[in-house]
Design a protein that fits this description.
The complex is a heterodimer. By secondary structure, chain A is an all-alpha fold. In chain A, 43% of the residues lie in helices and 0% in strands. Chain B has a domain at 305-440. Classes of the chains: A mainly alpha, B mainly beta.
C-alpha cells in the first residue's frame, strides 16, 4: 500500500515537473489564441471583403478593418462561446503586428486594390495556408513595382516610416541571430548602407565614438542582456584580455589611455614610488641581465601601452650612438624611412647627422 | 567607497602623441566648422518640423537623459535629437555634458562634448548621398573611425558604388591618440541578391607624416538562403604586412532552430599603432582566433550557445570559449534569465568566469512597467598575484520604472572586489525622457 502511494506521488510529482518544464520552456502554449482559419474561409469561397469591409478604400492611416464579433455572427449564427470571437480565433500578436505595419508603412490599400483587381491573395499569399501572418513579404512587393531599385539604393523610406522603431529584422540571418558583437563588424563592412537603414549614427557612436561619455554597459546599467565589448565586470580581466588580444584594444585605445588610469590608481604608470611593474634586472648597464630587451621584442604593444608617444624617448635616451644602450642599428642596417623627417629616426638624427 | 585611494592626476596625462606639426590648428578649424554645422543642423531641424506635417512623415525625436554615479561621483546630461525630411535630408545629434571623476578622463571641471552631429543629404533618385559632420565612418576594410568630415557615396545603375571620405579623426580628451587628417575611398560592386564585393583605401597622417596607409578588400555573400559569408582584409603599406583579417561563415536551418558559425580573426596590433611609434620597429605580437559558434533554440523560450576558439597570442597557443543559456520567462521575452560559463586560457590570460543575469518584470500595464535586473559575475584567475585575491566577484541590482512611454527612471547599486580594489560599492541612477512628433 505504501509503495503504491509512493509510486502515485512520484508519478504526480513527475507529471507536474514535466508540465511545469513544458510551461517554462514554452513547449506548452501560454495563451489560448490560435491562428485564424483563413484557409477554410478561402476554400469556402468567402470574399475577403465580407469580413474586412472597407479595406479596399483604406489609405495610409485609419482603421485596420479587422472583423468584429458582430461580423462573425452574421454567418456563424450559433457561436459556441459567449466571449469575443477574436479572443481565440486569430492571435493577438498578429493583430499587434498589423497595427505596427499600419503605423510604419506608407501603404494604401485603395491604390493597390484597383491594380490587383480585387485579388487580395495575389499579395497576401499566406492566407491560403493556416498561417495567419498575412503581411506581404519583400519578394511579392518587388515582383510588381519599381521597389527593387529602392532596395538596391537602400531607399527604405519610400515604404517604411521609422524602420528602426518598426524593429523589422532583415529576413537574411546575417547578423542578429549570431554573436552580434563579433560578427557585426565584418558583416557591416561590405554592406554598411544596409545597416544604416535601421541603425543610427548614435548607435554606432555609443561604442565606436572617441567622445563617448562612458561605456555602454554603464550607461545602460539596467539592460544586463545587452552584449557589450566591456561587460560589467570587464575591469577584472582587462589586463589579461589585453595580453590575449592586444589587437582588439589598439583599435580604439592608445597608450595615454592606459597610462592615465594606471598612474591615477597608483599601479605602475609614471608614479614609480607607488609601484614599478618591472622586476629587478629589468634594465641596467651593459653586461647585466637587461630583461627588457627580449620582452620588448616579444610584446612591443605591452611596452607601448605605457611608453608610447613621448615615451619613445625612454628608449632613445639609452639606445643611441654614444649612449649606454649602444648603437641601436645592427650590422647592415637599412631603412626606407626618411632620416630627416620620419620618426623615430629624427629623434636622434637631428640635422641629418 | 573604495578599498584603495586614488592618486592625483599625473603630468603625463597631458602629454600627447603629437609633434610640432600637430592637428591642433586643424582641430580649431573643425571646431569652427562644427559650430556652423550645428547652426545649419538647427535650421534644417526647424525646416523639417515645418514641412514634415503629413500623417506618414518620419517623426522628429528629441530626448534628454540625466545619468549619475556615486563613488566616484560623476554626472552626465545627454541631449539628443533626430529628424528627417524624406527623401532629401536627415539629421541627428547627440551632445553631452559631464562633470566628475578623473578616472573617466574628466577633469574636475565640467566638460561638454559632441558625440554625433551629422547631416545626411540624399539625392531623391538614390544616385548619391552625402554625410557631413561628426560621425562614425565604417566602410569596407576601413575600421570604424570617429571623424569630423564627410562621406560621399555615388551609385551607378550597374550596382557599382563609389565612396570617398575624409576629415579629421576626432581627438578625444580621454584617448590621447591624435591624427592630423585622414582620407580614403571605396569601390564596391553589388552582386544582385547575392551580396557585395569591394575594395578600399585610406591613410591617416599624424604629426605631418603618414601614420597609417591601408588597402583592403571585403565581401558579404548570401550564397544560399541558409548560408552567409563575409570577410575583410586590410594590408598596411607604411609598415608592410597584414593588419587585420576578419572572416565569418554561418549557416542555419530553415526554421532557425540551429545556427552555426565558423570564424577567424587575425590582427597585427603593431600595424594598428601609429607608424610613428618607435615600438612599431620592434616586432609584432600578432593575435589569431579561429573557432566555431553554435546556437540551438532548444525550446521556444530557451536558447543555448556554445562557442570555442583556438587562440594565438605572443606566439603561444591557447583556447577560449563559453557556454551560455538564455531562458525567456514569457512568450514575449519581457523577462529572461541568463547563465554563462566562460573560460580563457592563452598566454597570461588564464581565467574562468561565471555570469548570471535576469530581467524580472514586476508590474506591467499598457504604458507602465516596473522591472528588476540582478546581475552577478565571478572571475577565478588561475594564477593571481599575491595580494590580489583568488576570486573577483561583481554584482549589480538595478530597478527600472517606466511610468509612461516617454519617461524612464532607473537606479542601481553595484559592488565588486578585484585585483585592484579589495572592495568597491557604487550607486547609479538615470532619468530619461523621449518625445516624438507627429504621431501617425
Amino acid at each position: 500500500m505504501t509503495r503504491r502511494l509512493i509510486a502515485v506521488i512520484a508519478f504526480v510529482a513527475l507529471a507536474g515537473s514535466v508540465g511545469a518544464c513544458a510551461k517554462i520552456l514554452g513547449l506548452e502554449q501560454e495563451s489560448q489564441d490560435w491562428a485564424f482559419e483563413h484557409r477554410a474561409h478561402v476554400l469556402e469561397g468567402i470574399n475577403c471583403l465580407e469580413c474586412h469591409a472597407g479595406i479596399e478604400d483604406a489609405g495610409e492611416t485609419g482603421d485596420l478593418h479587422l472583423p468584429t464579433t458582430a461580423d462573425c455572427v452574421e454567418c456563424h449564427q450559433d457561436p459556441h462561446d459567449p466571449n469575443e470571437c477574436g479572443d481565440c480565433h486569430g492571435r493577438a500578436r498578429t493583430r499587434a503586428a498589423a497595427a505596427t505595419a499600419k503605423k510604419h508603412m506608407r501603404f494604401s490599400h485603395a491604390q493597390h486594390s484597383e491594380a490587383g483587381a480585387g485579388d487580395c491573395v495575389r499579395c497576401h499569399v499566406n492566407v491560403t495556408t493556416d498561417d495567419d501572418y498575412a503581411r506581404t513579404k519583400h519578394p511579392t512587393c518587388f515582383s510588381c513595382h519599381a521597389h527593387k531599385g529602392q532596395w538596391d539604393t537602400r531607399d527604405c523610406d519610400g515604404c517604411h516610416v521609422e524602420l528602426q522603431a518598426e524593429v523589422a529584422f532583415p529576413e537574411s540571418h546575417v547578423v542578429h541571430d549570431g554573436d552580434f558583437l563579433r560578427e557585426h563588424g565584418v558583416q557591416a563592412a561590405a554592406q554598411a548602407d544596409l545597416c544604416t537603414t535601421c541603425h543610427t549614427q548614435r548607435q554606432c557612436a555609443a561604442c565606436h565614438g572617441i567622445t563617448v561619455p562612458t561605456i555602454p554597459s554603464r550607461l545602460a546599467f539596467d539592460a544586463p542582456m545587452r552584449q557589450s565589448m566591456h561587460r560589467a565586470n570587464f575591469f577584472a580581466v582587462h589586463d589579461m584580455q589585453a595580453a590575449a588580444d592586444p589587437g582588439a584594444c589598439v583599435i580604439c585605445h592608445s597608450a595615454i589611455f592606459c597610462v592615465d588610469c594606471h598612474t591615477r590608481e597608483g599601479i605602475a604608470g609614471l608614479d614609480a614610488a607607488r609601484g614599478n611593474p618591472h622586476p629587478a634586472g629589468w634594465s641596467g648597464p651593459p653586461g647585466t641581465s637587461n630583461d627588457h630587451g627580449p620582452a620588448a621584442r616579444l610584446d612591443p604593444v605591452g611596452c607601448a601601452s605605457c611608453h608610447g608617444g613621448a615615451g619613445e624617448m625612454l628608449c632613445v635616451g639609452c639606445h643611441r650612438v654614444g649612449g649606454p644602450g649602444g648603437n641601436p642599428h645592427p650590422a647592415n642596417f637599412s631603412s626606407r624611412l626618411d632620416i630627416i623627417n620620419d620618426l623615430p629616426c629624427r629623434l636622434c638624427h637631428l640635422g641629418n647627422l | 567607497m573604495h578599498g584603495v585611494l586614488s592618486s592625483p592626476p599625473s603630468e603625463r596625462s597631458k602629454q600627447r602623441e603629437h609633434g610640432p606639426r600637430s592637428g591642433t590648428r586643424a582641430s580649431q578649424k573643425i571646431c569652427s566648422i562644427a559650430g556652423r554645422a550645428g547652426l545649419a543642423l538647427a535650421a534644417i531641424f526647424a525646416l523639417s518640423c515645418i514641412f514634415a506635417t503629413s500623417a506618414s512623415a518620419q517623426p522628429h525625436r528629441v530626448g534628454a537623459e540625466l545619468w549619475g554615479q556615486a563613488n566616484p561621483n560623476y554626472g552626465l546630461i545627454i541631449l539628443e535629437g533626430s529628424t528627417r525630411k524624406y527623401p532629401y535630408v536627415d539629421a541627428e545629434a547627440m551632445i553631452w555634458g559631464g562633470i566628475g571623476a578623473p578616472q573617466y578622463g574628466f577633469d574636475d571641471s565640467a566638460e561638454v562634448q559632441a558625440l554625433v552631429i551629422a547631416i545626411k543629404v540624399r539625392d531623391p533618385r538614390g544616385i548619391s548621398d552625402t554625410r557631413l559632420g561628426r560621425f562614425i565612418l565604417a566602410t569596407g576594410s576601413v575600421r570604424a573611425m570617429h571623424i569630423d568630415g564627410g562621406h560621399i557615396t555615388l551609385r551607378a545603375r550597374s550596382k557599382t558604388h563609389f565612396e570617398v571620405f575624409g576629415g579629421v579623426p576626432v581627438d578625444g580628451d580621454i584617448e590621447g591618440r591624435k591624427y592630423d587628417w585622414m582620407v580614403g575611398g571605396r569601390l564596391s560592386q553589388g552582386l544582385g541578391k547575392r551580396g557585395v564585393v569591394g575594395t578600399s583605401y585610406y591613410n591617416r597622417f599624424n604629426a605631418g607624416q603618414r601614420s597609417d596607409e591601408e588597402v583592403g578588400g571585403d565581401f558579404s555573400l548570401r550564397v544560399a538562403h541558409w548560408l552567409d559569408m563575409a570577410a575583410k582584409v586590410s594590408w598596411e603599406l607604411v609598415n608592410p604586412g597584414l593588419a587585420e583579417v576578419l572572416g565569418t561563415l554561418s549557416a542555419q536551418t530553415k526554421d532557425r532552430v540551429i545556427r552555426g558559425e565558423l570564424f577567424v580573426t587575425k590582427r597585427s596590433p603593431i600595424r594598428m599603432l601609429q607608424a610613428t611609434s618607435l615600438f612599431t620597429v620592434l616586432g609584432d605580437p600578432g593575435t589569431l582566433q579561429t573557432g566555431a559558434n553554435l546556437r540551438w533554440r532548444a525550446a521556444p523560450r530557451l536558447d543555448l550557445w556554445v562557442n570555442g576558439a583556438m587562440m594565438n597570442a605572443e606566439d603561444q597557443y591557447g583556447w577560449g570559449g563559453y557556454l551560455r543559456g538564455v531562458l525567456r520567462t514569457d512568450d514575449e521575452g519581457k523577462g529572461s534569465i541568463l547563465g554563462e560559463l566562460r573560460r580563457q586560457s592563452v598566454s597570461v590570460s588564464q581565467w574562468t568566469g561565471i555570469r548570471l543575469a535576469a530581467v524580472i518584470p514586476l508590474y506591467e500595464d499598457i504604458d507602465t512597467t516596473l522591472g528588476l535586473m540582478p546581475e552577478f559575475e565571478i572571475i577565478f584567475p588561475d594564477d593571481p598575484d599575491p595580494g590580489q585575491g583568488s576570486v573577483w566577484p561583481w554584482g549589480r541590482l538595478a530597478l527600472r520604472w517606466q511610468p509612461s512611454k516617454s519617461w524612464a527612471i532607473a537606479a542601481a547599486c553595484e559592488a565588486s572586489a578585484n585585483q585592484v580594489q579589495r572592495y568597491e560599492v557604487r550607486a547609479l541612477a538615470r532619468v530619461s525622457y523621449q518625445a516624438e512628433w507627429p504621431k501617425k
